[in-house]
Amino acid sequence: MGSEEGDDGLRRRGCSCTKDDFLPEESFKSMGNYFKALKETPSRFIDRVMTRSQDSVELHEMKARSGHEMKKTLTWWDLMWFGVGAVIGSGIFVLTGQEARESAGPAVVVSFVVSGVSAMLSVFCYTEFAVEIPVAGGSFAYLRVELGDFMAFIAAGNIILQYIVGGAAVARSWTSYFATLLNHKPDDFRIIAHSLHEDYNHLDPIAVGVCVIICVLAAIGTKGSSVFNYIASIIHMLVILFIVIAGFTRADFKNYSDFAPFGARGVFKSSSVLFFAYIGFDAVSTMAEETKNPGRDIPIGLVGSMVLTTVCYCLMAAALCLMQPYGQIDPDAPFSVAFSAVGWDWAKYLVAFGALKGMTTVLLVGAIGEARYMTHIARAHMMPPWLAHVNAKTGTPINATVVMLTATALIALFTKLGILADLLSVSTLFIFMLVAVALLIRRYYVTGETSSRDRNTFLVFLGLILASSVATAVYWALEKDSWIGYCVTVPVWFLSTAGMKFLVAQARAPKLWGVPLVPWLPSASIAINIFLLGSIDGKSYIRFAIWTGVLLVYYLLFGLHATYDTAKETLKEKMMLQNAEEGSVATDKSGAATSDH
């Protein structure tokens, strides 16, 4: 945000702001224009819902709105360690004990496998999009191309919520593990503001300080952040290796005698919660714009990091349940207490150190990912275009980085965030399901090329896949003992997917890398994500609906009109350019004819 060269050749401060940096569109030029735009809301809304973006628009026109290019400095090695750093954080150190004790028992390792399979299917879908459309927008850009502006905005708003609230939760957890490392209680480092509500009166200045440091690291450059993340992740992996080896050396296989005490329902309920431990890999897809060779680096980096993460999670969960009977596992600090129980009290400090390293990298990669999401949303003018600015010197979106980390720090300072873990899982599973739907649409429907018959047949099968998946999830949530319903819903899902495979021709093939076994893998991703949604409590859906309602209000008052004006202005510029080119060609032909004469 330093000094930069303006269009008029004068040097000006990059942080100087005017109204046009935030609301430059025609609808906001005057109150009269705004009220006129509000009257046109229904027609504009239909236009935005029905209009899809194009690959070329996301790859070229949208990127140009940032003023400067992001620097292409990342390889598959960087992406793989960014993936590990983004995912392996506080979730494994806290949620494992909670779910093993209360929901799954030693079968928590199976829960991690189920969550890992769901995450891997989503990774495949994200990877194809990231290779085909290597831009900073991640799922926002993918959904904008395949499902239109409106669905992309609702999805992106939930992803932003996930990053801000999740980052704040990790920052407060950072304080807790830091206190453990120093043999203190977390509240020893917090300020108690008695005048505030009890859910907001434990002020956490250390969490704010961590957010500030992360903000600086994320803003100075992606490659520098990659080096830091790589070193921190290596140390973290060494700590995990110690936990696994030491845990197995103190194993008592009698603890596995009652492997699944809560049955299959407990295993799947745990899977829906433990999915939170896999959140973060989508941040890596937002770095596609900074990747040297997207066609090679993104598949290796994303898939490799998810395989490594799943293996680590399963080994750690198995080691924990072998050290202690599941009923004695501590839900708050499971690994530390487990090592104390087997006489290795000193190991809790090493566990706390490893957790701190993991949470630091989660915060860093999350900060990088959320800023790039926000940058691309601002490029589309759904958020103020000021947030789309890319700094010429660092090649990073500094404005978006500072704004997002400020929001994270404010929430981390005031708020206890335990109740929001399920809400974050709802948002994320919803987004991952939409990305799988978008991939099927990308493969089977191309405007102007797909026949009416194939389009209609595809929509019928897609509708049946979604309906059967929702029915399975609802039946699971409502019916505790009977399995009869699954004998209907699962065959419908299978036959619908098979019908799409054999009765609908694919309209588009991936250019560089594609998801294998289409439509089976995307369809399975849809089914598993919706199934896991059925295991989450009802209060989380109420919070999800409230946040989505807030997004809808913002979109109808501001985002809709900004994107509508931007689209019309872009179309007008294209028409003028096309007319100018046609006029130039006509002039050239006329000149040539005169010369021949």
From TrEMBL:
Residues spanning the membrane: 74-95, 107-129, 150-171, 227-248, 268-288, 300-326, 346-369, 390-414, 426-445, 457-477, 483-505, 517-536, 542-564
Main subcellular localisation: membrane
Domain Cationic amino acid transporter C-terminal: 513-562
Membrane topology according to the record: Multi-pass membrane protein
GO CC, one annotated term: plasma membrane
Gene Ontology terms describing biological process: amino acid transport
Annotated Pfam families: AA_permease_2, AA_permease_C
Compartments reported by the entry: Membrane
Keywords: Amino-acid transport, Membrane, Transmembrane, Transmembrane helix, Transport
Annotated family: Belongs to the amino acid-polyamine-organocation (APC) superfamily. Cationic amino acid transporter (CAT) (TC 2.A.3.3) family.
Classification via PANTHER family: CATIONIC AMINO ACID TRANSPORTER C-TERMINAL DOMAIN-CONTAINING PROTEIN (PTHR43243:SF76), INNER MEMBRANE TRANSPORTER YGJI-RELATED (PTHR43243)
Protein name per UniProt: Cationic amino acid transporter C-terminal domain-containing protein
